[in-house]
Amino acid sequence: MSTGTTTAGRTGSGGRFGRVTVRPEFTLAVLAVAGFVALAVATDGNLLTRGTLDAFFRFLAVPIVIGLAQMVVLAIGQMNLSVGTLTGLCAMVAAWLMLEAGLPAPLAVLAALGVGLAAGLVNGLLVVITRINGFVVTLATMTIIEGLRYGVNGPDTFQGYSQGLRDLGTASVLGLPVVFVFALAVAALVALFFGRTVAGRQLLATGGSPFAARLSGVSNDRSIVIAHGLSGLLAGVAAVITVAASGSVNSSIGDDLMLPSFAAPIIGGVALTGGVVSVAGTCLAAFLVRLVDVMQAQFDINPRWIDLIVGAVVLGAVLLGTVRQKLSKGSP
Amino acid sequence: MPLWANPRLGLLILLVALIALFTALRPAFMDVTLTLVPLQSDVSVYAVVGLAQLAVLSLGHMNMAVGRMAAMSAFAMGLAYDRLGVSLVTGLLIGLLVGTLLGALAGLVISRTGVNSFVVTLAMDFALVGLITILYTRFTDGVAFGGLPAGMDALRNDTFADYCTGDVCGPEISLVVPLALVAVLAVGVLFRFSRLGREILMTGANGRAAELSGIPVRSRVVQAHALSGLLAGFAGFLLAANNGAFSASIGDAFLLPSFLGPVLGGTLLAGGAVSVLGTVLGAGLTQVIYKGLNLLQFQLDQLNLYIGLVLLAALSLDRVRHVVADRKGARV
Amino acid sequence: MTLVAENLVKTFPGVRALDGATLRLAAGSVHALLGENGAGKSTLIKILTGVHRPDGGKIVLGGAELHLNGPLDAQHAGIGVVHQERNLIPGFSIAENIVLHHLPRRFGLVDRARMRAEARRCLGLLDLDLDPDTPVSRLSVAQAQLVEIAKALSVDSKVLLLDEPTASLTGDEADRLYGIVRRLRDDGQAVVLVSHKLEEVFAVADTVTVLRDGRSVAEARPLAGYTQDQVVDLMVGRAYSSVRLADRHVDLRAAPALRLDGVSTARGHRDISLSVRPGEILGLYGLVGAGRSELAKALLGLDRITAGTVEVRGRPVRIRDVGDALRRHRIGYVTENRKEEGLFLDQPITRNVGVTVWRRMARAGLVTDRAERRLVAGYTDRLGIRISSPSQLAGLLSGGNQQKVSLAKWLAADCEILIVDEPTVGIDVRTKAAFHELIAELAGTGLALLLISSDLPEIVTLADRIAVMNDFTLRGELVNDHDYARMSQAIIRLIHMGSRPAGDETA
Lengths: 332, 332, 507
Description:
The structure holds three protein chains of three kinds. Chain A has a single domain (about 25-35, about 60-325), classed as ABC transporter involved in vitamin B12 uptake, BtuC (Orthogonal Bundle). Chain A is built from 14 helices and four strands. Chain A has helices at about 25-40, 50-60, 60-75, 85-100, 105-130, 135-155, 165-170, 180-195, 200-210, 210-215, 220-245, 260-265, 280-300, 305-330, and strands spanning about 160, 170-175, 175, 250. Chain A has a two-stranded antiparallel sheet with strand order 1-4. Chain A has a two-stranded antiparallel ribbon with strand order 2-3. In chain A, helix 1 (about 25-40) runs parallel beside helix 13 and helix 4 (about 85-100) packs antiparallel against helix 5 (about 105-130). The longest helix of chain A has 27 residues, at about 220-245. Chain A is globular, with a radius of gyration of 20 Å. Chain A starts with about 25 loop residues before the first helix and ends with a helix. A two-stranded antiparallel sheet of chain B has the order 1-2. The longest helix of chain B is centred in the last third of the chain and has 32 residues, at about 300-330. Chain B contains 13 helices and two strands, in the order ααααααββααααααα. In chain B, strand 1 (about 165) and strand 2 form a beta hairpin. Chain B is mostly helical. Chain B has helices at about 5-25, 30-55, 65-85, 90-115, 115-140, 150-155, 175-195, 195-205, 205-210, 215-245, 255-265, 275-295, 300-330, and strands spanning about 165, 170. Helices cover about 35% and strands about 25% of the residues of chain C. The model of chain C is unreliable at about 500-505 (pLDDT under 50). Chains in contact: A-B, A-C, B-C. The interface of A and C includes residues 6, 14, 197, 209 and 217 of A.
């Protein structure tokens, strides 16, 4: 997997400063490994059995991608409240195209991605044209998309679509679920985008300091549209994974994704003010949340404790980040 | 400000137009027991929900946990009524106290750590959603409290028309309406005339200048969030009164409407300015659309499409009006 | 002529920042652009670099008229700039910041190797030995400044604009910078230098344009034809220099309203002792960064006082916060940063003035608009604030009127001790004179005034005594005899006495 691309990035370039250890990604990685080992031991190795492990990673794919979808808009200091419902809409559209319109699976997948991208671009354009706060714009589009999502098939469930796609959703490669590998590949691409492409760097410049970016000839409007478009596209990706992995979709898909989409990047060290992203941090945070999830299933804990724990973790992560920031400011 | 530039007026006209439209399409819209009385109750609840969000929007903050604060308050009320057998008013006060304390807690964390209010209340939402289910499972059959205080039933079913002195009966107004009205008036007076409310607004407008003007900024932040918690709790009570039960699901659907009302009514997310009347009108507008479209046999989930479109249209119009006003102002 | 900007006009809400300014630049020369704060220098620079669009006038570069629709247009036209504010992306590396406007790419990706090479070339032009991969967030202020200059050089520029480039540099660093400026001039560039350090300007510049109130009062004249004093006269205007305020009588036997004795603060002030009597103006002079505003804020309880005593009207006090200072001790602070700390720009004037007195105005916790308007009307009359209505937003007022509103807030609160921090920064010359009269008048009514200023003529005009601060300590105190030449020399001498050579300046 690609390394994190904080804009503060390349902190340890050449390893000269040995600062790798103070980066939030490092803490998260240690926590993730420790948690995984601890859970494996506590379940007497049950976690490492083929079925459990497979399920663990398969249902990690969507949280990773949806976290990234939120992260790309956080990068410019905005939010996208519509990621969850958009994932649902894209999934419903894909299923509808296969079942009702009889389109082959690859075309349906492309269409789902297209819907996501288009909706994201609309978000971005609305923000740029109306100059209304991104939070409010996506609040409105979230509501609209909610209606559209329901409109595709009413309260009914789509199932029995493309066998090939569903097989792909349950298939494994090198012992890992295909959808998980796919999610990692997407994460790598996002990391590449922010780390190495001109558009990605300009987007981070917009997030870091819009005025300075403008002075350097960066079009902030363009960055906003690209960020929202990419966010929508990633929601489309999450939808494709959902359609493949779950075998059936209905209009409630995505309802439980909006808040977790914020949890992963925030725990992963992404600042709400923009300018800083961390692909690795977001992925690791999603991993940690999934770990808590599995722990609940293994020990038959009331699932509601999960939310309580995630809430505490989000707050803890942010507080830790603030403390770290204060410390690093105190010792220049 | 010229009359045409007043966003409240546009909202009022839209409201009247929609009522006329729905009445023309479905005369049942004017049916008192079927539509008007339930509509009053709903508007009452969601106006107060909107005010709960408005209380922190005044600071430029958000409260992502409005729903859960309402649920915790409602839980405390239900517990007090069911287990302690307290009177209607005592239970209400206990619940409001819980809501206030939760809000104050959020405010305290925000003002002490300087962490973004969105993150703090989001984390709180996660934590509370888990806690609430756990509490309901432990103290009830898992769904709702059984014991209700005297007077709860009247609050749910009666209108003033049921109370007569001699031959003169009251109007067909639900009993929760005056309760909500008290909240609206209190919040209106607070932000318009009281020193506390004005100082909260000044803190939202420019925190640094507020501090240098001798305003205790930190306390104001805590107080605004406490007010938000208080109002959320009150909204929870009103909804429980309407539903006739203190159940775990109270507050589930509060988050979106809490933003819809204030934003439609012209309250900025940036802080420093609020519109209480606009929030009430905004809440009224959304509920009228829900009820009207419902009568026209639209599915509940699909209604969101139209709510979202209205929100977007209202915001864009507001934007256009601003631009026009700016141009006119520039020419003078 | 390489570049001619003719009759530029630019209006912001409430202010006419440029009112027919003209700038003519020749290739191979260093051109000084001078003027007081608020004269329009930064606005002119922002127009030349495409940040603002002019409301009137035209820009001609190499014979062709130039229409700049954004910063990128200016860069393509060969105009490089270092703005007064730092404009680097905090998380990015030095190299990336330098080449951000034309990131080199290969196969659609950023070509890091070429980016570094280009950055090294630009850093090399400045003889800077910095690792291009270092994030700029780790640089010192001076280093960041030099990186911005390197960034401006990476544009293949014909014109280079430097807005206060040495404000945060030490003497050595500034010398090195001017060495580079001379080299660029010899290479045929037109360099525009904005600086308030006249000695440096006279050492390096060939020609000069002076702006006053948005107009050019001297256009592209050879600098050799002027003395420093003549330039200062041009900048401030004759009328202002000769302002003489009515004598005030200060009762020297009166007990001090505010007295500091051996005060040290957490911010680094050491052993500060001073006192102000009712009716007296104590000037606190120092350069930017000397620690004057910080001392004021420590007095208000915003920073910890670690040693010494603060006495208000003869009684030792410990001030916890601004509210405490205001209500218990009647101390007010008119901030230098009125847009960010002094005013609520999006709020009506009534609230801006009333904010300090709501506690007193409230009946049963409620404040009426009527009472507030009455209060404001009193101060608009007294201070001569020009407003269209009391509900006008403060952000729409001109700089001078904004400053008066910021002052009215404290007068309304019945302050007896007023700390006024750089009261006339960014205010045009005429309003400035009126403001000075107002401040003298306030002292005449018995207010104890601590006037913080880095404007020498201002402090010599207004103060009864002048305390000089440098590097968070007091260098000495002078009784002001209002003779500008003598006083300014004495003050400069105090600053240099035993201090480092860095940051020297004459006004």
